[in-house]
Amino acid sequence: MVWFFKEWSAYPAPTPDAFYKGNPTPMDYPGGTLGLLEDYYAWEWGDALFIVLDPFWNTNTNPNSANDAWHWTLGKTQYDWLKATLQSSGARYRFVFMHHIVGGTTTLADGVTTNVAARGGIEVIDKYEWGGRNADGTAGFAARRPGWDMPIHNLLAANHVSAVFHGHDHLYAYQTMDGLVYLECPQPGTANYVVLGSAGDGKYTQGVLMPNSGHIRVTVAGGQALSEYVRSYRPEDETATRHNRDVSHSFTMAPWVSTNASLSGLALSVGSLSPAFSSAVSNYTASVGNVTTSVTVTPSVTETGASVKVNGVSVASGSASGAVNLSVGLNTISVQVTAADGLTTTSYTVAVMRLSVLEGWRQTWFGSAANSGLGADSADPYGTGLSNLVVYGLLGPGQNPATARASQLPQPVLSAGAYTFTFTEPAGVSGVTYGAEWTSNLSLGTWAPMADTGSGASHRFSMPTNAGSKGFMRLKVTRQ
Q1: Please, are residues 55 and 73 in contact by the beta-carbon 8 Å criterion?
Q2: Alpha-carbon distances, residue 414 vs 149, 382, 417, 422, 454 (angstroms)
Q3: Average pLDDT over residues 311-319
Q4: What pLDDT score was predicted for residue 461?
C-alpha cells in the first residue's frame, strides 16, 4: 500500500486549505508517514460544488476474494465528510466524481461467473453501501453499516446532487434515478466506436447507452447546466456521419433552489425564549426587566441562500439585528425568512414583555411579576403591617419586603400649627400615585383628600391643628 501511494502521489491532488476541503488526517505507519492521502476533496466555483470521492482506500478486504460487494466502501470517515460537505453548501449545482459506484454487480455478463468488480449504473444502485440492499433484495444497510445515516444514493438525493460522474465501465451511459443523473463517462482515447465496453458485465439496460470514444463537457450558464458527449474520432475514422468534436448526446440540469425557509436558531441579546427554540415552532415569548430598553435578535437560517428580516429590516444569518426598542408592556418582534427560491416564506414572532418597575420588584422578591398571591399589591406576606404597594411606593424598588418596617415610612412633623408629611419619591419608583387624606373622627365616609403642595418628585401634605379638636391623617399609594 505504501508503494502504491507513493506512485499515486506522483500526481498530486488538492489538500485542505482556504479553498479546498478534504481529508485532513495524515496516514502514519510504523517507521514513517504518508502525509495527507489526497484521496477525497471538494471545492466550490461559482454556483457549483465539486466533490471527488475515493472508493479504494478504505476497501481493505478484496471484494472479489470475499465474493461480497459489501466490502466496497467509502469508510465511515469519508461518508461523514461527504454528508457534512453537502449539508454545508449552498451551491445550486452539485457534482460528484468517482471511479465507480460503491457496490455494483457481482457477476459477469453471463450472470454466473463471479466478478465483484463494482461495475454498473442505476440497475444496481439499490444494492450494498450505495443503495442499502443485499444481493437478494433484502434490507442490509442497518446491519452492514451500523451508525450510518442512510445509503449513499439516498444521501446524495436528499442533498440535491445534480449528477454522479463515474467511470470504470468504458461506455457512455446517461441514466437518472430519483432526480439524480448517473453519467458513466466514456473513454476519451480509444478507437473502439461500436462496442459498449463493459455494459454487459455492468448489466446496463436503461437510459442512453453509446460506445466510445469522447469526453464530457459541462457548461453552467443561463440558469442551467448543459452536459454534452463530445466525440473523439481519428482523422482516418471520420465519415459522413462521424466527425471529431461531434456532440452525440446532451442533456440539461436545472439548478437546485431550496424552498427551505426555516430557522436553525433564534436568540435574543437579553432574555430567554419560551418555549426553547425549535425550527417547527413559530411563536415565542420572553420577559425582560424594566432596565432593558432594547434587545437585538440573532436569527440563523437553516439553508444557505435563504434571507431573513427582523421587523422588516434585513439581517445577515447568524448576526445580530439592530436594536429593537422596547416599551413597557408587550412588544411583538417579527422575523421573516425567505427561502432561496425567493417565494417560500416562514414567519416567526417573539412577544417580549418588558416589565414595569413594580413588576420587576415583584419578580425579584416573589418570583413572579403577577399582581396576585404573595406578590399582590394589597398583600402583607411578612406580617409587617405594610402592604406590598406601600413598601414599593414609599421605600423603593430596592427594599426587601421582609425587612420593611413602619418606622421607615415618612413621619408627620408638627410645626407652625400643622401636621405635615414631607417626602421625596424613592429613586426608581414609577407607576404609582401618592396622596393623603384626613378626617376628624375616623368614621366611614369622612375621609377627605388633601392637597399636595409639593413639586415634582417631592410631596407635601399638611393638616392644620385647632385647639381642642382632633384630626387624623393617612398617606395613600395607588397604582396608576
Answers
A1: yes
A2: 85, 31, 7, 11, 17
A3: 97
A4: 94
What is the spatial distance between Cα 129 and Cα 32, in angstroms, rounded to a whole number?
A: 32
* Residue written as grid cell 465496453: 197
Query: What does the mean pLDDT of the chain come to?
Result: 93
At residue 111, φ and ψ (nearest 5 deg) are 75, 5
Range 79-82, long-range pairs (CB < 8 A, 24+ positions): 79/148, 79/152, 79/155, 81/21, 81/23, 81/40, 82/40, 82/51, 82/53, 82/152, 82/155
At residue 352, the pLDDT reads 97
Rounded CA gap, 288 and 344, in Å? 32
pLDDT above 90: percentage of residues in the chain:
83
- C-alpha 154/C-alpha 459 separation (Å) is 77
Give the start-end residues of each E strand in 81-213. 93-98, 163-166, 172-177, 180-184, 208-210
Separation between Cα atoms, residue 74 and residue 71, nearest integer Å: 10
Higher pLDDT, 443 or 248: 248
Q: Are 144 and 79 in contact (CB under 8 A)?
A: no
Give, in order, the Cα–Cα distances in Å from 314 to each of 146, 296, 311, 320, 324.
43, 13, 9, 11, 13
| The model scores a pTM over 0.85 | no
Report the C-alpha gap between 408 and 251 in whole angstroms.
88
Q: Which residues, listed in sequence order, are joined to residue 93 by a DSSP beta bridge?
A: 48
The conformation of residue 186, written as its DSSP 8-state character, comes to: P
Q: Could you give the angle at which helices 388-395 and 357-366 cross, rounded to 10 degrees?
A: 120
Amino acid at 51: I
Walk me through the domains of the chain, giving residue ranges and CATH numbers: 39-253 (3.30.750.180), 263-354 (2.60.40), 359-479 (2.60.40)
